[in-house]
Amino acid sequence: MIRKVLGTILTRMITALLTLAVVVMNARFLGAEKVGVISLVILAVTIVQMVNNFVGGASLVYLVPRTPLLKLFIPSYIWGVVSALLCTIILRMTGTLPAGFFVHILALSALQSLVNVNSMILLGQERIRAINVLTVIQFMLTTGTLGFLYFLTDYREVMGYLFAMYISFFLVFLCSFALITTRLKRTDLHGMRGIVSEILRFGTWAQVANISQLFNYRLSYYLIEMMISKTALGIYATGVQVSEGVWLLPKSMAMVQYSRITNETRPDYGVRLTLMFAKIGILISALAVGILLLLPSGFFIFIFGTEFAEVKPVIASLAGGIVLLSFAIPLSAFFSGIGKPRQSAIAAGIGLVFTVGLSLLLIPSLGILGAGIATTCSYAAITLYQAIMFTIITRVRFRDFLLHTGDVRMLIREIFGDGVRNFLKTLFSPGSAR
User: Fold this and answer.
1) Percent of the chain scored above 70 by pLDDT?
2) Cα–Cα separations (whole angstroms), residue 392 to 44, 343, 385, 403
3) Contacts of 299 by beta carbon, 8 Å cutoff, 6+ apart
4) Hey, which of 2, 176, 210, 425 would disulfide with 118, CB 3.0 to 4.6 Å?
């Protein structure tokens, strides 16, 4: 299983580098204001995905090992298209879409919804390698298309980024669809209503958590645009993207962990796996954040341009929250894996209270740094609640949250199997000296 984690980490490292290349190209060729527009487009597509995932999200991962695939496939695809249409219309009516991008957001949202359904099915089947390959392909297509447009055609408009998204989403959809259909079998569709009810029961709590968490991540974008400017939003969004790159390891581990726990019959294994991932995640994230904070401001100016001089202060304002949430990410995966996404929903709701209250208080007085501080406080509240509930549900002790030799042994066993563990046990046992 750890090999799947390592493959996922490598995938996320590649995609992180490609994302950084995209961020740098957008900053250099488009400027802060157009980067702000792109951020709003991406946020709109992401909001649509939150609604799509009531049916086509985490519930699929949980139900794929337990339900005939066709009974999940049909309602998920129908909902993917319908939710994209309805949500985009609602967003337009509420005035939250950037002007002139309605059709593009609708089309991209529908494509992304179907890609996401395919990915969740693959994840439920523990086909991690396929997901990783498709992810790399998607990011390479986006980066390559943008590089072509910016460097070879000198096209420097927001539509260039959207065109790159069209290409990557569509081709990844075709590939993932082909992988899914190889395992689709004719199934009696009797009882579909019960299956849909089960999807919604699980998916509702999971998506309440995800929607609340999305607003914890991105509500400040709207507030910054309203209270300050699109230029300030572009600077803040760049700092956020750099900071969230620290979650590469925790999110890689959580994806494999969730897939493993949903297919695992040993409850104690899931608890031990979660604790190991949480401890490793927070240590690596703290190290990565420390490195970011040691970089001089001139480094970020050199990378992104003089217009982005405040990127490092934004990273500093987010640093504490980024590290703390690295610990909470595996806990969320654990709650979903055992069929209790309600706990993650409550945690995200608590965080949202902090996000809204502190953002309204701090952004007018401190600007984009106030948004970062509000986000850090929100992440701290989320992590505290999830740690408490994990302790109550699993009955672990406080000392279990500390790194110890048992975590190292488990990590070695997951990487190399029981052979190395038995060899080390024999080597260091008292009788080995005779």
Assistant:
1) 89
2) 37, 11, 11, 20
3) none
4) 176
Supply the pLDDT for residue 433. 43
CB-CB contact of 253 with 407 (8 Å) = no
Report the pLDDT averaged over residues 4-8. Answer: 72
C-alpha to C-alpha distance for 405 and 388, rounded to whole angstroms: 23
pTM tops 0.85, yes or no: no
C-alpha to C-alpha distance for 376 and 374, rounded to whole angstroms: 5
DSSP assignments along 144-169, one per residue: HHHHIIIIIS---SHHHHHHHHHHHH
Query: What per-residue confidence (pLDDT) applies to 428?
Result: 46
- The conformational region for residue 207 under phi > 0 = left, psi -120 to 50 = alpha, else beta, is alpha
| Per-residue pLDDT tens digits for 309-331 | 888 999 999 999 999 999 999 99
The residues, ordered by sequence, that sit 6+ positions from 82 with a Cβ below 8 Å of its Cβ are none
Residue 401, CB-side half-sphere exposure with 13 Å CA sphere: 17
What tokens appear for 244 in the block? 């969230």
User: pLDDT tens digits, residue range 283-303?
Assistant: 989 999 999 999 998 898 888
Torsion of the alpha carbons at 386, 392, 395 and 401, rounded to the nearest 10: 30
Backbone angles phi, psi at 97, to 5 degrees: -90, 140
pLDDT of the residue at 376: 94
What letter would DSSP give residue 305?
Answer: -
Mean pLDDT for all residues in the chain: 84
Per residue in 102-137, pLDDT (tens digit) is 999 999 999 999 999 999 888 888 788 888 899 999
Give the DSSP letter of residue 128: H
In this prediction, residues 382-410 reach a mean pLDDT of 83
Q: Which helix (H) or strand (E) holds 405?
A: helix 405-416
**What pLDDT shows up at residue 315?**
93
CB-hemisphere CA count at 13 Å for 332? 27
Q: Which of 160, 361, 418 is nearest to 426 (CA)?
A: 418
The residue behind tokens 């792109």 is: 38
Structure token pair of residue 81? 């298209």
Hey, what amino acid is at 231? T
Q: Would you state the pLDDT for residue 381?
A: 95
Cα distance between residue 247 and residue 329, in whole Å: 9
* DSSP letter, residue 57: S
